Amino acid sequence: MLKAKVLLVGPRESGKSVLANFVSESIEGIGSYSPTQGVRILEYEKPNFNGNSKGAGCRFELWDCSGDQKFETCWPALMKDSHGVIIIFNPELPSHLKEIEMWYSCFVQQQPLLDSQCLLVAHHKPGSVGDTENLSLAYPLNKLKLIHSNLEEDPEDVRMEFMKYFRSIITLINESREREEMSIIS
Predict the structure, then answer these.
(1) pLDDT band for position 128 (50/70/90)?
(2) Sign for the pseudo-dihedral over CA of 156, 152, 88, 43
(3) pLDDT-derived band of residue 129, with 50, 70 and 90 as boundaries?
(4) β 57-65/39-47 pair status
(5) Largest Cα–Cα distance in the chain?
(6) Is the pLDDT of residue 1 over 80?
(7) Between 101 and 33, the higher pLDDT residue
(8) How far apart are CA 106 and CA 101, in angstroms?
(9) CA dist., res. 164 & res. 1, Å (int)
(10) Are 66 and 10 contacting, i.e. CB atoms less than 8 angstroms apart?
(11) 168 Cβ contact list (under 8 Å, min separation 6)
(12) pLDDT per residue over 73-112, tens digit each?
């Protein structure tokens, strides 16, 4: 079974744990807000998700990382061997729009990961009313795939977008493995 490690990062109180629970179909921690301390790892299996004939599916490790910068010294250890990064933010908070540049720099550019391995999620909390559909993001964030998540209004659209992203990560892992196998053969 193929294994993929995906980090969920972003500012404090942006909805990382809520989305991690939703995507992994976990009921852990549902209810009142409780800040993640360091990191929380959710394992999530998708049978028949591999995209090629070499395996029966994929196991995703969703690393729900604390948005508290007091854990910054742990970030290099969290990033090790990751295949993708999902940056989650609340589009209604101007401070989050500034902060996501730092998250991108630390978790994507410094690894280095391809922009295709990164997903930006503008997470709309229940009861949010602001018009944030037309976000203007600064370079280099404006080159990244951006999705809007609203679990009250369109949960299945959100799930579908995450599955598309996970498929792209699996494709990259498979391509990397094939290149590695070919380099050993030749």
Answers:
(1) confident
(2) negative
(3) low
(4) antiparallel
(5) 58
(6) no
(7) 101
(8) 9
(9) 19
(10) no
(11) 116, 117
(12) 999 999 999 999 999 999 999 899 889 999 999 999 988 8
Do 9 and 85 meet the contact criterion of CB atoms below 8 Å apart? Answer: yes
DSSP codes of every residue in the chain: -EEEEEEEE-STTSSHHHHHHHHHT--TT-SS-----SEEEEEEEEET-SSSSSSSEEEEEEEEE---GGGGGGHHHHHTT--EEEEEE-TT-HHHHHHHHHHHIIIIITTT--GGGEEEEEEPPTT-----SS--PPTTGGGSEEEEE-TTT-HHHHHHHHHHHHHHHHHHHHHHHHHHHHHHH-
Angle between helices 16-24 and 155-185 (to 10 degrees): 80
Q: Who contacts 22 (Cβ-Cβ below 8 Å, separation ≥6)?
A: 151, 155, 158, 159
- Tokens for 47? 């049978």
Which residues does residue 57 pair with via DSSP β-bridges, in sequence order?
Answer: 47
For residue 56, give the amino acid letter: A
- The token pair at 125 is 């909390």
Q: Which residue has the tokens 């500012």?
A: 11
